[in-house]
Amino acid sequence: MALSSVHQSPLKHWAQMSPDCFALQTHIKRYTWFELEREVQRYAYAMRQQGVKTQDVVTCVGKNSAELVLIYLACLELGAICAITMPQPQQSLEHKLATLYRNEDTVWCWSAESLDLNHIPNDIVPLKFESLPSPSEFVVSVYQSEQLASIIFTSGSTGLPKAVAHTNQQHLASANGLLQGFAFTQQDTWLLSLPMYHVSGLAIIYRWLSVGAQLKVGGGDLLQDIAGVTHASLVATQLSRLLASPQPLSLSHVLLGGSHVALSLSQQATQRGIETWLGYGMTEAASTVTAKQIDGEYSAGKVLANRALEVRDGHIYVGGETLASGYYTQGDLTPLLDEQGWFATKDLGYWLDNGELVIQGRADNLFISGGENIHCEEIEQAINVHPNVQQSMVIAVENAQYGARPIAFVVSEQPIESLDLPAWLDSRLERFKHPDDYLEMPAELLSGGIKISRRELKQWVTAHSNYTVI
Fold it and tell me: Would the pLDDT of 114 be above 90?
């Protein structure tokens, strides 16, 4: 049964209720809930000894690891706010740390990367975990579900990243709402397959904590990490490679992110006993808002429990219990809701007669070409179902005749010319929506997280081509 509302932390709840059940698996060790609580105590004690207090910001820079999970859980016990961000250039990190810095308090920083903090003008103090002491006293948990627990930065695809602050209660509302239809029990294991610095990765943590199941932190090789796992959050190309490999699969459920997923891929998974689901979500709503088991109807599914969604004049508004407390800036929260309690997503969509939602794309990514409305995401969806395309992104550029035209950047293991994308799109899109140019995605834009930044792609095009970006 999923955890709903308790006064103690989920970690302590399961350590008391299921102390001998396995909780966390890494490449070197497997922890029961009792053992995990004791290990988190060591981290919480070390952080307390270094000066971390309730509602301090602890910034973690790095990819998924067992240590990152333990630090996050320790923050929950201490009542600290854990801000997680990806490894990135120093200038980008400095901007984020400046957003988190509060004049009256220290901002603590832990990194799995090599960082030069000496050039950051704020009072940033590195946390050390080289040799964890054995606690000389028991760290009393000050966990509160209503207090701020996490800060996750938006992808910044159309502007500077925003620091989105959630409480534990909001994260658990997200987890519990999804799990009313997406089966996940205490006997299951979910692979931490998405980075915790994205809300989709952090959502895995809270689904695990919600039901007291087992979390697996892999080593980065999906074919090895998937062993013994029942649940995973993947993109379509990852699932396709798993199904094509000789690797035995214990998977029962896969939650797919990204764009359109081919029905044929879902059918292949079904033949292996795997349910495939997809959904629509955002950082501000603690991940998934709508979801469905994949079928022949292209949509993002129905609204999940604990959420609300309205479509007004084609624009999508989200409400409910999972919405963030606000955007965090130097200790202050800027509300993200309007006076009626709705969040304007800037996404466009419409309802189907069966109550499912169709996402057309971002309002920012709609442009007019020769008097016709074109959605960048609609073109991307059509390109992405090509069997040899891993990912694509479309942007609009100036055109003397039509005002604006689309060009496409494609990720593929094959030469772009061999894909014959114009012929592929002939039966899928009106001709005026076909891109004027198909280019290889710049390699440097593929190194950052699970999303390619549209803003960074536009900057790259401006710097490296003769196109003028709209």
Answer: no
